[in-house]
Amino acid sequence: MSQNHPYRSLQLPGDAPFELKPSPGKGWGAFATRRINRGATILRERPLFVVRKSNEQITEEDVRTAFQHLPPSAKQQFSHLRDNACVPFTHMTEAFAENSFAISNSVGPQASISPVHGLFLLHSRFNHSCIPNSKIPNTNNEIIASFATRDIMAGEEITFCYNTDFECRNRHERHQALRFICDCKACLPGTPFQQLSDMRRTFIRGLQYLTLGKDLNGQKQGSVSPIIVDPKLKKAAEDFSIPLSSRLFYNLLVMYLLEEEGLLDDFMAERLHPSILNIKALFITERNARIATLAMAQETWLEKFCMALRLYGRADVADHAVAEGLRKLQGLSVEQ
Ligand SMILES: [Zn+2]
């Protein structure tokens, strides 16, 4: 039956390193047809069409109008789309919601004012994993691209993570957000890896709260199941009076935990590493600066963290100015 499935008619680029086929329990998925090296581009894709509205504002009429402007071949491609690979969609908005990505809405001030969603026939076939082997980085143009975050073997399913803050969400929280049951390594219940994974991700969330003064989604934690239970520590995080020494080893510990979890891909490392180097550069007290430099010179994240632990409990001459600077930054962002 899968031989006649409409997804067989979706057009793949000639050099695509994957094929589309049924994925047990997940409808269809993309599977590597040859080895894809870490960092290699898997697919660059133009949207079939875009709708320049936020998700909640997109109407049946919006999608229908965009569809009607398509050439016949593109219309036919759109008509191949199936709800979870099974049945035709009953509404255009459903087809759009299940096969679209937000583009251009996460970069730059203008972008956040004018959200754009594009319909991507092929990237929408990639299934989710909480420990994925590919990533679709944010883009500020309409073409999206996926890259291998580790070596992918021929025959392996290509996956990416559907949400942006799953590194600090436990299994239960992830499933609430996904609205389906993920069966990746981090989600298979009752395994030692899954239990460790929940601990690591909860720990990462706590460490991020200590350094950012809020959750990744911008929320302050209330009294219901707070991640930081010590009120003094929570207050210190929220008014940015966490000392520089603690900031350094919290950040290094996050890197180590991300690595252990299988999430520290090159994109994430590239994003997080500069802020750690910035922290290292802020120390003024000579002994602290020396230890921070020594820590960053270590080879692994675990070694860097262990070295930075020598700073534990140490105040730095820069602490006051750093706290003031962070408060000012926070004040500015609140005013905007
Ligand atoms: Zn999962």
UniProtKB/TrEMBL annotation:
PANTHER family: SET DOMAIN-CONTAINING PROTEIN 5 (PTHR47332). It comes from Zopfia rhizophila CBS 207.26. Residues 16-163 form the SET domain. InterPro entries: SET_dom (IPR001214), SET_dom_sf (IPR046341), SET_domain_protein (IPR053185). It comes from the Eukaryota. This is SET domain-containing protein.
